Amino acid sequence: xxxxxxxxxxxxxxxxxxxxxxxxxxxxxxxxxxxxxxxxxxxxxxxxxxxxxxxxxxxxxxxxxxxxxxxxxxxxxxxxxxxxxxxxxxxxxxxxxxxxxxxxxxxxxxxxxxxxxxxxxxxxxxxxxxxxxxxxxxxxxxxxxxxxxxxxxxxxxxxxxxxxxxxxxxxxxxxxxxxxxxxxxxxxxxxxxxxxxxxxxxxxxxxxxxxxxxxxxxxxxxxxxxxxxxxxxxxxxxxxxxxxxxxxxxxxxxxxxxxxxxxxxxxxxxxxxxxxxxxxxxxxxxxxxxxxxxxx
Length: 296
Description:
The chain is α/β, with parallel strands linked by helices. It contains 11 helices and 7 strands. A 7-stranded mixed β-sheet has the order 1-7-6-2-5-3-4.
């Protein structure tokens, strides 16, 4: 009788666990580079040891933006004044107004009226800027002004040489080296070639170069503002740091001894296991349900 009762209890517990698992709706799952299940605590522990953390986001994904705020708060708790923030979402020629706002020299309305802010700034990036302002953490505008990236995409790298000396302050030092054999740029060139109906190779290369100058410039301003003993936490689209290329390549080109930690964000139908195609994208990969609501 006792054995039968124990068996029934075990069956009931198993059924409860299965039902609980089926009704759980996790918003994300963190994996390591090899696709093994990891967790947020391990991510923070490794980020604390890094010189530079590249948080690759999906621009319209709320889980990415929430976790960016969480990582920022937790790294600040550990690093204090040794934390520096930076973002693709701010162009380098907006550094003055960004610093004026975070240092309390101008008001929010003036900042929003005059800065070149993304359409999703209020929901997705304002919390990071406000955290910077409140805690007096430097916030660096790292991206090349869009007009110059567009110029390269249309006219090629040599067009940057025609810029004024003042304008060149907002771009990585010239000449900019680009390895078009990197998968990030090669795949972009292939996509643009297909979409263009077989345009000439020069046009396709210019399209990929327009992306590369963004990565080169972001790497330049990250290193220009990073100091040994500090952690630079940078927010960028995953494409700019996936597969340890792009920004990572430019950072390592200038300093091979940097400890760089990358985070990638991916969307999957099932997040219990990392899809094979998403392995090795970064040191940590955040898998998010593909039906997650979007911020825009």
